[in-house]
Amino acid sequence: MPGIIASRCAECGHLSVPAARYCPNCASDMVQGQELPAAGQLLSFTTLYSPPSGFTAPLRIGIVQAEGGARLMCDGLGEEQLSVGQMVYLEEADGIYYFFTEPGPTERQRLLARLREPRIGRARALAQSFLQRFMRRG
Per residue in 84-116, pLDDT tens? Predict the structure, then answer.
C-alpha cells in the first residue's frame, strides 16, 4: 500500500500534508519530501445518516493521526464498527484522504465507487470547518 506524501521543513520541522513547496509555518523553501506510512490511529469520527445532497449515507468523517505525525481529516468507507483509538489504513485519491479498517482490494473498490459520486463544495467547506475547530482545540 503506497504511503502518504508529505513534506517536512528543514528549518522548523513542520510537517505538511499534502506536500508543500514552502513551509506554511515559517515560509521557508527548505522543505524535503517525505513518505508517511499509510496507517494511523482514529482520534475522532462522526457518522452522518442524513448527509448533504450528493453524498451516500452513511457518511463517515474522521480525524486520523498518521504514524508519521500528521493529523488528517478523512472520509471513512465501509460500515464496520469504529472506535476511537482504532488503527486504520489511509489512501489518498483526487486530493481527498480516506480511511479503512482493513487494507485490501475490497476497500479500493469502495474507494473507486465513492469517487464516482458527485462532490459538493459546500459540504467539503463544512468538513474543513470541522477540522479547523478540532485542530484549534488540539
Answer: 999 998 888 878 888 888 776 666 666 666 665
What is the spatial distance between Cα 112 and Cα 31, in angstroms, rounded to a whole number? Answer: 32
Neighbours of 131 (CB within 10 A): 16
Percent of the chain with pLDDT over 90: 37
DSSP 3-state of 89: strand
What is the value of pTM for the model shown?
Answer: 0.70
Q: Alpha-carbon distance 110 to 77, whole Å?
A: 7
- Residue 43: pLDDT above 90? yes
**Does a cis peptide bond (omega within 30 degrees of 0) precede residue 103?**
no
Q: What is the pLDDT of residue 1?
A: 57
The answer to whether 55 touches 2, Cβ cutoff 8 Å, is no
Residue appearing with cell numbers 474507494 = 111
CA within 13 Å, CB half, 47? 11
Question: Which residues contact residue 10 at a Cβ distance below 8 angstroms, ignoring those fewer than 6 apart?
Answer: 28, 30, 31, 32
Strands 4-9 and 31-36: antiparallel
- For residue 51, what is its C-alpha cell? 448527509
